[in-house]
Amino acid sequence: WQEGILRRQAARESSARTYARALPIVPVRARGMTIEGADGRRYLDCLSGAGTLALGHNHPVVLEAIRKVLDSGAPLHVLDLATPVKDAFITELFRTLPAGLADHARVQFCGPAGTDAVEAAFKLVRTATGRDGLLAFTGAYHGMTSGALEASGNAPDVRVARLPYPQDFRCPFGVGGDRGAELAARWTESVLTDPKSGVPHPAGMILEPVQGEGGVIPAPDAWLRRMRQLTADHSVPLIVDEVQTGVGRTGAFWAVEHSGVTPDVMVLSKAIGGSLPLAVVVYHEDLDVWEPGAHAGTFRGNQLAMAAGTATLAHVRENGLADRAHRLGDRMLTELRRLRTDFTCVGDVRGRGLMIGVELVDPSGEPTPKQHPQPTENPTPADRTYEPLPPAPELAAAVQRECLRRGLIVELGGRHNSVVRLLPPLTITDEQATAVLDRLTDAVQTAAR
Ligand code: PMP
Which domains does the chain have, with CATH numbers? Predict the structure, then answer.
């Protein structure tokens, strides 16, 4: 049965399919952190719908909220009409917003996907400022539609200037730490202030507080505050993409709260729909320049997603699940960092809250040179603390396979696909966390042999 399903879908589905290649399982049932395959095997799920499932699969409060809408006879699809279900969602969303934004915020429903909200945010800041260009960061991921894609990855683009994202490991300036973040910030500053940079006054800057797909790279709080200050000084709207970091994932309800930064625009999706498709932009009322109908989309009124989302946001808030993510994430990070001593192929372990990355490297390789072209200011040789070993994507894939054999689903990512990513639900129990750590350690040991 399972083999037949896998074979038929592989034959008929587009070659663009991704997860199904690395994870040849056929999920038929799921609850909390556990997925059961058609063959009866059970897995601990650290993929969580690419970080969507803050409460895990089929959480009772989410199911109850969905059933309530179904049983009430409410319309399931209403474009952007006002409804009690939407009213409850907006009320709960605004309750959670960062303090600086909540009192002056507008929300716009954008459609099902994170990338829809990114497009809306770009169009919004372009309309509001009358300018065109955008600032984005190396290694960013904002989605797969054309606008979002322009601002993702490392490819240079005419309309989007790419700035170095601060990185400890594989720091583009070869120094890491505070000094690397400082050099990255100065680069951005020079682009905004130096007319010779050739970058015209931009319509906005977009960043992830923790890069997810880029390899789980948390931005230092001080760097985020610098970006806030710089963008404010130059009247450039700051768009923070919290599609993956939001709803408690990083140990605060929104990841910007760690740094105290108040964005002008927040892009939200994934967990806000409680496992169903929903995406919104939230922005300062001063940017609310749209004419009615200036930005539309058929699927802005998914009532089931709003109800599931309301239940999820409320449950995370009322049960302090962001704090729990912080505590448990710290424990998992501390234990995983030991892998660096035990295995030379584990180059780096990093993350924030329950957004964790383990970067695999090739111990027999030569250290990688700097990735970025010329930094604004060259670090002195004394600044150069290390040059990391080359990324090991094949080893990372082997670790993923070994994890699967041990009943653990993990995600791969990073600039070179060499980062094993853990995005467990915020409801993961202490015992499940221990099982994840044990299975991952075991998988690394086998793959490294
Ligand atoms: N922004 C970020 C930070 C993301 O992680 C993602 C998805 N991984 C997106 C945007 C795009 O979301 P979607 O896949 O729903 O279009």
Answer: 2-58+321-448 (3.90.1150.10), 64-318 (3.40.640.10)
